[in-house]
Design goal:
This protein is mainly beta. The protein is 7% helix and 39% strand. Strands 1, 2, 54, 55, 56 and 57 form a six-stranded mixed beta sheet that branches. Strands 3-60-59-58 form a four-stranded antiparallel beta sheet, with no helix packed on it. Strands 5-6-7-8 form a four-stranded antiparallel beta sheet, with no helix packed on it.
């Protein structure tokens, strides 16, 4: 408090008029995500009437029974001795899927009533194997086979775990780290001990790798395993070296036998019900082997011309009709959201679910609770269900609130807008913030409410810009269609570290007083529209400017009414400065107006235009500095204030106030500055009260928006809302009121004294 008083005293005789620290706190509450979003995989948990489906979200598990109307959310916790874990519980699942060339089901699986999870607490720690008996509410450490623990460290938090789970069609659980294989076979159902792991011999399997120059070996790893069953008297094993090697071991044999090799990296391995046909799914192709011979025949899957090749998952569905005993259906999920179906063993194919325009992939396929029922998980569209063996699909996301939030804004009526991977949503009036109305289902990464027309414009993952009319009609324009990426990267600071499609529109801006719109694609650079968004063209940056941006990303773009454009570039590595660039000719030529060396502890440079000024006036913040420029970023005037003692993490504007979110040494505050561009500006400070578990993240950069005293902060997909307190009348502006109150008190005191005197006379 003494520091705040000292700073306020300095301000009162400096540029600003006065500073007050109000005790009025600003409590923040976290916004519940809308329905849908990214789901890593779907699992079937339990058997019979108690069987349920489990959807694996980014932070939670969602469980649904056959007769239940919607999903129930279960937010799991680390085991008690890992409460200080640096990662979220399911981060290892997502990292393994994204970087390990495996399916998410290799990191989370269900057997009977247990859920097994491969988890990574943080970098340079051992990979953990956890299990849950209560649908993911709580987790316990599972024992590992002896001698395995020391081999399972990961170098970085986003590294794919080496430990993997295999759950083939025999109903058992298998464990591998790529060199060995174990089967879970406890002595009793309730026994969870290391004795439950039975090692499977890999005698005859070459796992040393192919030797290359300097005596090194290419890494070799076990990929997939099919155990022997009552109907299949042999086992199958795939090992990736320089090629994919397929091994077979017949019943009672001591060693495995190499039977063939394929130029592929298998994502799935399955056999037909009659055991005569084996299918192997690669990212680019599907292979078929009949009769276990050496020949693997590529299966032609006719694809849509716009869909790039990319297989993500394979499922073989037994026919529900008893008249077709032994018949099966093949389903392939694609990286672009397509589901392909074949009912004749791969001879012909049909597109059962069309390609998603935003490239939200199918992450998993699983058989459901009823005959012919199939479930699909997606990377953004939540879950889908089919009741006819994959012929038709419907979205089923009621209660599955797992959408990731990328953009926030307020519409013309002051209602909150959320841009998510599941679509664009608007908060429903008169309801809690958890109630949302879906405006459209395109994955939305940028939102613009045009100040001149109040028109709502949104940018999508697929590179489209959608214009929303007042009558509810939506028009789409392909601003950055899929294709060759550019060499200019754009990434706002609040999305740093978030995986995004290269065509995603991450920023939208309108030139004040005109029809020009600007859009910035993640890897297609700047785009310009002269007709209000109906058509788009790439904006020129110039080869010299492109060369200057090498090794950097653009994080801010601010257009102004006279045609100038201002950009902020941030370096990807050390020893390079953050720079502010200016163009006076619409992007043809550029010059650096400001630069500084940014360190890891310093908040990034933010740039904005004061919205209440007709003539362009810019405000810049970074670290604990606020500066203004009236000459188009050629010179800057620093404004002192209480923010100098901390880090400015967010900047916003409400009418004629500038609002700063500041991380101070012992507090997080909302600081309001009324007309900072004029002498005598006043400063009011409010402590921010973050929700539990959010205070440690309060020092991260936030995307901040304010409208009609409503406040919203977007911090890497975690969104918090609050209300800006009403401004109190401060002392310098209310001297007349103070004098009046003083006189009333004085006269009242004199009156009582007079009455008291008369009473005792």
């Amino acid at each position: 408090m003494s520091l705040a008083i000292g700073l306020c005293a300095t301000l009162s005789v400096g540029t600003l008029g006065g500073c007050t620290t109000e005790q009025t706190r600003v409590p923040l509450s976290e916004v519940s995500a809308p329905e849908g979003g990214a789901v890593a995989t779907v699992l079937r948990l339990g058997e019979g009437d108690d069987a349920q489906m489990v959807a694996v979200g980014t932070r939670s598990l969602f469980v649904r029974g056959a007769q239940e109307p919607g999903w129930s959310e279960f937010q799991g916790r680390w085991p008690s001795r890992l409460q200080g874990a640096g990662q979220a519980l399911f981060d290892g699942v997502w990292a393994g899927r994204a970087r390990g060339q495996f399916q998410a089901s290799n990191y989370i699986a269900s057997v009977d009533d247990l859920i097994w999870l491969v988890a990574v607490p943080s970098a340079n720690q051992h990979t953990r194997l956890l299990y849950s008996r209560d649908k993911g509410r709580s987790w316990l450490n599972a024992p590992l086979p002896s001698g395995l623990l020391e081999e399972l460290r990961v170098a970085r938090a986003d590294t794919a775990p080496r430990l993997r789970l295999l759950s083939p069609d025999d109903g058992n659980l298998y464990l591998t780290q790529g060199k060995s294989l174990w089967r879970w076979a406890p002595e009793s159902p309730g026994d969870i001990s290391a004795r439950g792991w039975q090692r499977i011999s890999l005698a005859g399997v070459e796992l040393k790798g192919e030797e290359r120059a300097r005596g090194q070996h290419l890494p070799a790893t076990l990929r997939n395993y099919l155990p022997a069953t009552e109907d299949r008297s042999y086992e199958l094993l795939t090992v990736l070296r320089d090629r994919l090697l397929v091994y077979r071991r017949v019943a009672d044999a001591d060693e495995w036998m190499l039977i063939s090799s394929v130029a592929a990296i298998d994502r799935a391995l399955a056999t037909s019900p009659d055991q005569e046909v084996i299918y192997l799914l690669d990212r680019a192709r599907l292979y078929r082997n009949i009769g276990l011979n050496e020949l693997w025949e590529p299966v032609e899957v006719v694809r849509h011309s716009l869909e790039p090749e990319g297989n993500s998952t394979l499922l073989m569905v037994p026919a529900a009709d008893d008249a077709r005993a032994g018949a099966y259906t093949l389903l392939i999920g694609g990286d672009s959201g397509t589901i392909w179906r074949s009912g004749d063993g791969g001879v012909s194919w049909a597109e059962a679910k069309p390609r998603d325009p935003d490239g939200r992939s199918i992450t998993g396929l699983a058989q459901g609770l009823e005959p012919g029922e199939v479930w699909a998980s997606s990377d953004g569209q939540g879950v889908w269900r089919s009741l006819d063996e994959g012929k038709s699909w419907v979205s089923l996301n009621q209660g599955l609130k797992g959408a990731s939030i990328y953009a926030v804004e307020f519409d013309a009526r002051g209602q909150l807008l959320l841009g998510t991977d599941a679509g664009l949503f608007r908060s429903l009036p008169g309801f809690e913030s958890e109630s949302w109305q879906q405006i459209h289902d395109r994955a939305t990464s940028a939102i613009l409410v045009n100040e001149s027309s109040d028109q709502l414009i949104s940018g999508t993952f697929g590179g489209s810009v959608l214009m929303h009319d007042l009558n509810g009609q939506v028009r789409s324009s392909e601003a950055a269609p899929l294709g060759q990426a550019n060499d200019v990267n754009f990434r706002p600071v609040h999305l740093e570290g978030v995986a995004l499609p290269r065509a995603a529109i991450l920023a939208l801006a309108a030139r004040p007083g005109g029809q020009q719109l600007y859009a910035w694609s993640h890897q297609h650079g700047p785009l310009l529209s002269n007709d209000g968004g109906e058509s788009w063209r790439s904006a020129r940056l110039g080869q010299a400017f492109r060369s200057a941006l090498e090794g950097s990303v653009i994080s801010e773009v601010v257009p102004e009414q006279e045609g100038r454009i201002f950009l902020v570039s941030r370096p990807l590595g050390p020893n390079r400065p953050t720079q502010l660039w200016r163009s006076s000719d619409g992007g043809e030529t550029w010059q650096s107006s400001y630069s500084y060396m940014e360190n890891e502890q310093e908040s990034p440079l933010r740039l904005a235009r004061l919205p209440w000024r007709e003539v362009t006036e810019l405000v810049m913040t970074h670290g604990g500095r606020v500066a203004l420029s009236r000459d188009h970023a050629q010179s800057w005037t620093t404004i002192p204030g209480p923010w100098s003692a901390g880090e400015i993490t967010g900047v916003g504007f409400d009418r004629e106030e500038m609002l700063l979110v500041t991380d101070l040494p012992h507090a997080s505050e909302l600081i309001r500055v009324r007309r900072p561009d004029e002498a005598g500006a006043t400063v009011v400070r409010h402590p921010l009260v973050w929700p539990p578990q959010a205070s440690l993240r309060a020092d991260r950069p936030v995307d901040m928006h304010v409208r009609q005293r409503r406040l919203v902060l977007n911090e890497s997909g975690r969104v918090y809302v609050g209300e800006v307190p009403r401004r109190r009348t401060n002392l310098p502006e209310s001297m007349g009121v103070l004098v009046t109150v003083t006189l009333v008190i004085l006269l009242t005191s004199l009156s009582f004294a007079f009455l008291k005197t008369r009473r005792y006379r």
